[in-house]
Design a protein that fits this description.
CATH architecture: 2-Layer Sandwich
Pfam family, one: RNase_PH
Largest sheet: 5 strands, mixed
InterPro entries: ExoRNase_PH_dom1 (IPR001247), ExoRNase_PH_dom2 (IPR015847), ExoRNase_PH_dom2_sf (IPR036345), PNPase/RNase_PH_dom_sf (IPR027408), Ribosomal_Su5_D2-typ_SF (IPR020568), RNase_PH (IPR050080), RNase_PH_bac-type (IPR002381), RNase_PH_CS (IPR018336)
Strand order of the largest sheet: 1-2-3-5-4
CATH superfamily: GHMP Kinase, N-terminal domain
Order of helices and strands: EEEEHHHEHEEHEEHH
Helix content: 25-40%
Catalytic activity: tRNA(n+1) + phosphate = tRNA(n) + a ribonucleoside 5'-diphosphate
Radius of gyration: 18 Å
Number of helices: 7
Oligomer: single chain
Protein name: Ribonuclease PH
Enzyme class: transferase
CATH topology: Ribosomal Protein S5, domain 2
């Protein structure tokens, strides 16, 4: 990717290649089997993983598990108050689309047969939104999911930790013809092209959501944005690994799954 295709300096001092500061605070909730407060800069999402000893009707008797997600913006997570979905009597389209993305992404991380007939719910509540909330939800939701799987293994409900791969996501885009990664809200609102990329720990793509919001984009520009996404997801997975602090016994339990 040519250097002149990427922003050399952004409003917050980052280059086009740079992520915002990312952090994971595990165990944020004392009740959930797994939980994580994830921060992408000013964007903060509380992700919890809750285990239910049952599966949806279409999986009953299949000996397979399920991972699903819900997503919501808290009322004052943005510059103006967002009404709760319950006050409207239905889930809004954006929340529905994002929670389906999170569910699809995290199902790619788990061996459903080894999970057995149980469901893990990933609830993603946006406490503060400054762009990239769906990427943060996927990335932090993965950390909460892994802790829930570790919990099930530790208490003897799983013979191994049924983790297939790490999973993380990032937003990339184009502004004034320049490419950049991990868009904050101001950048996202001005972007000609906005793309969300979900990948696993082996560099394989799980999902790409790319939209020409205000302009078209070329094949070369798409490849450039994917290059940025690959680089950023690699960084995110290193941070996930550090946050999760797997010991040797847990690594063996994953390998035996």
């Amino acid at each position: 990717m040519a250097k002149n295709c990427v922003w050399e300096s952004r409003a917050d001092g980052r280059s086009g290649y740079d992520m915002r500061k990312v952090s994971f605070q595990r165990g944020f909730s004392c009740y959930a089997e797994g939980s994580c407060l994830v921060s992408f800069g000013k964007t903060k999402v509380l992700c919890t993983a809750s285990v239910e000893e049952k599966v949806p009707p279409f999986l009953r008797g299949s000996d397979r598990g399920w991972v699903t997600a819900e997503y919501s913006l808290l009322p004052r997570s943005t510059s103006t108050r967002v009404p709760r979905d319950i006050s409207r009597g239905k889930l809004n389209g954006r929340s529905s689309e994002i929670q389906r993305l999170v569910g699809r992404s995290l199902r790619a991380a788990v061996d459903m047969e080894s999970l057995g007939e149980r469901t893990i719910w990933i609830d993603c509540d946006v406490l503060q939104a400054d762009g990239g909330t769906r990427s943060a939800a996927v990335t932090g939701g993965f950390v909460a999911l892994v802790d829930a799987l570790r919990h099930l293994w530790r208490i003897g409900k799983l013979k191994s930790i049924p983790l297939r791969s790490y999973v993380a996501a990032v937003s990339v885009g184009k502004i004034s013809g320049k490419l950049l990664t991990d868009l904050c809200y101001d950048e996202d609102s001005r972007a000609e092209v906005d793309m969300n990329v979900v990948m696993d720990g082996l560099g394989r793509l799980i999902e790409i959501q790319g939209t020409g919001e205000k302009d078209t984009f070329s094949r070369d520009e798409m490849n450039g944005m994917l290059d940025l996404a690959f680089r950023s997801v690699e960084e995110l997975i290193v941070l996930q690994e550090r946050a999760l602090e797997m010991d040797g016994e847990e690594m063996e339990a994953i390998a035996s799954s």
